[in-house]
Prior knowledge:
This protein is α/β, with parallel strands linked by helices.
Amino acid sequence: MNPDSVNEATGPRPSLRRLVSPRSIAVVGASEAPGSLGECVLSNLDEAGFAGDLYLVNPKRAQVRGRTCLASVEALPTGVDCAILAIPKSGVLDAAEACARRDAGSLIVFSAGFAESGEAGRAAENRLAAMAREHGIAIEGPNCLGLVNYVDRLPLTFIRTPIREPSRAPGAAVLSQSGALAAVLGVNLRHHGLQISYSISTGNEAACGIEDFLDYLLEDEHTRVFVLVVEQIRQPRRFLDLAARARALGKFLVLLHPGSSAAARRSAVTHTGAMTGDYQVMRAKVTHAGVVIVDTLEELVDVAQLLIHRPQLPQGGAAVFTESGAFKGLALDLCERIGLHLPELSEPAADALKKVLPGFIAPTNPLDLTAQALVDPGLYGRTLPIFLAEDRFGSVVLVIILTDAATCELKFPPILEALRGLSTTRPVVFAALDEGAPAPAQYVKALRELGVPFYPSPERALRALARVTQTAARRILTVGQFPLHIALPAFSGNVPEWRCKQVLEQCGIPFPQGALAQTLDEANAIAARIGFPVVLKAQSPALPHKSDVGGVVLGVSGSDALAAGWEQMRRDLARARPGLILDGVLVEQMARPGIELFAGARNDPQWGPVLLVGFGGVLAEALHDVRLLVPGLSVEAIEAGLHKLQCAPLLRGFRGSQSADVRAAAQIVFALGEMMLANPSVQEIDLNPIVVYDDGTGAKALDAFMVTSDASTAATPQNSIASPT
């Protein structure tokens, strides 16, 4: 654990030990009224057998449950570890400040009505946060359900919570900004027989957020998986650092993040006071960091179950055993949609299966065992080892028809016997094909004891496996080789195209041949050197969109055409942008046609640099055919991303056309990402279009635009001109 780490933005963080594992507790608002917050907290502590010092505060009662009640917070002894404020919002600030004066180590604030309710509530929450910073107090909430430390049998919540004896095996910690979903997840995880180490509802996070609790618990020996429900990641870069630490420790973060829709983002503001950022940027960044991101509560629990039972991430595709030919087809369809690869059997494996299968069962993946296992129970034991010996299979999913109690008694014993005989670190997953059929508890328990998670439907099992398998593959496909820092123009703001290209050429990004001209004679000399036809482009930091005002002349095929184009550009610019000062005119080779892509990069203020790639022109706008990528991906991973675009068949050769040099395009995007990683002063870069030629013949970026945040003044060419003359 790392309770006393330092946040550069806010100063030293308070120790969370006194909040998560308090030895002394004060319940402010203690009560005997059934269903009241104070009564529920006391019931939980009594039922859990809390043996530490317990102080009750209620000015209206001398005793509660036979215990003496103090009349005010001021009557508390100094140094109580945790004060639980089970009182209305109107009394919270006064009580919190009184607790601070008594040197309380931490507070849990249940009350709502703070930042999520408007400006007045936000001001009150800011007072809580300021008090926490001033006194070094850890605060959970406001607007939270509290926490449950299952390891130490500490239910500090008003939700009735059964405390079971902890398992020796590591389990899951629930960290949720939503209190309701923290409680729901507790029920769901217990239903699946999963051990919970901690459940913490962070609410509005006035002082302590998801990142703080994750930091504190990351090295906890009782926790393998962190189940996260987060409406806003408030410290994105710290969260990414924690994800990297988790990966190094062999721990897993599974994240459910509402906010992909505009309506959900608006809802988050009123719910927990979150000010949500760009959801797609968040998703790309955390996924790249190794976080398993899911879309539903069901997936959240299903992925957690898989990772708790099988901490070794599956490498490669999956093998599916089933007992239905129709489901075999359904599985192929589903796995294609969700991105779970089902490799074909190797020839040796197929030959081995033929020796142990009856002639009417084809050796394929998925493998349809039909109903044969009912009459030949040893079939599981003969076939499973063959699949698990294949390197191309990283996991096996058993999709079994259970039907009724009698069928279960026939099938479970030989399956369990086969599983006990296996020696493999690869996940084996059990799924009932007929959800709702009886699955005797003793058999489900026996599966889980063997590290085989049980799912009530194959769809849930396959989706969970797809999420985890994709995370494993993503770790293989990342690199981190930043180039040397490249000297950028001493400029703040827009960098004109000619200078942008000078910089990006140092990264290995190819552009058409060309140079900057300030006179017509210079333009003719450049054109003669590089060869006609050429394109003319007006250059100025104040002209990011040149073609809109006549600043681009295409297809100039000779000296006369160049002079005419030069004059036409001068007239158009004088009319559209009178007084515009140009650096000059960029004279470039006219690129031959090819498939047009675009690549953009921006330095997100919260998450850092991100990349956007897609098809150029109207396709990008009409179909929103784009992919958001993260700098640091390998060229191979970027290439795979380009092949996932909707119009990717155009890259692979369409209706007799040649396939495109996708590798060359990916290398441009890779270089763009490395440029962003190495140069944080770059705020934005656009390459549009990138023309991709036939396979093996390369790609070129035709236009480039950059914005930097360098505070120094731009240097301009020696002979700046008002217009091309």
